[in-house]
Amino acid sequence: MLLSPARSDLQVRIEKVVHIISQFNGAVVALSAGVDSSLVAALARRALRDRVVAVTALSESLAPGEMRIAKKTAKKIGIRHIIVTTNEVHNASYKANPFNRCFYCKDTLYRELRHEADKLGFEAILDGTQLDDFGDIRPGLLAAREAGVRSPLAEAGFSKRDVRETAQLLGLEVWDKPAMPCLSSRIPHGEEITVQKLSQVGEAECVIKRLSGARDIRVRHHGTVAAIEVTPEELPLLYQEGLMSQVRKELRRIGFPDVTLGPRKYPNRQTATKLGHDHILPIINTSNH
Length: 289
Hints:
By secondary structure, the protein is α/β, with parallel strands linked by helices. The protein has two domains: 5-176, HUPs (Rossmann fold, 3-Layer(aba) Sandwich); 183-288, GMP Synthetase, Chain A, domain 3. The chain contains eleven helices and eight strands. The chain has helices at residues 8-22, 35-48, 66-77, 92-95, 101-120, 140-146, 152-155, 160-169, 195-212, 243-254, 269-275, and strands at residues 27-30, 52-58, 80-85, 124-126, 217-222, 225-230, 258-263, 284-285. Strands 3-2-1-4 form a four-stranded parallel sheet, with helices on both faces. Strands 5-6-7-8 form a four-stranded mixed sheet. Helix 10 links the parallel strand 6 and strand 7. Helix 2 packs parallel to helix 3 and helix 9 (195-212) packs antiparallel against helix 10. The protein is globular, with a radius of gyration of 20 Å.
């Protein structure tokens, strides 16, 4: 793989990741459909050959289409892919949806991954955490630390930009894929998570993507209100003539009689501590549009 002289430092970090992983006596990679974990899986495959597997968790909180992407990515990489079913949505602590909800999700996941690793006789569990993740509020990082999970991208000094650039160089189709947190992140902290709410959110997001062509959206579940959030770059797609009328009709069928629309915003750290970084109220009511 050839890089420009200006990015030769990236080549060094790529080799460092491979070196870190190659020291393990086998590894399990927590593979979501995202670019970070996909890159780890690709480099782990390079480092350990057949002594590595990718594991994706299937649960009601997984966004529709994500498993298909994970399968496709694993096939592209040539890594063995295992699907495990997790039941975090039936854990009372998770269902209560506290601010540290992600801890209970990741704790469940890493227990499953350790079980798979032990069955295979593999030493390490790897995730896709990179340096930019440490700037967010992520209770799941505590679960990773307690489970002894290794983060080779972060250890090698990878930023999100580095991850995307490397993934593109490796030919991974997900290199520019928008982040897709679990569906539970669309429900305000403190409000109970139910399978019905997750299903409503997942279906609503699929409908909006299909009708608008937008890739990076969220539908926040506020009871009878679906709060649609779109990146500023893609927001004009939702203003296509007649589109919001179709969206309102479809979301009413799903169980959202009221719909709001606004750009995705990221609150400051103080607000995030209070509400959770993934809880952002909508600003535009589309009822009259």
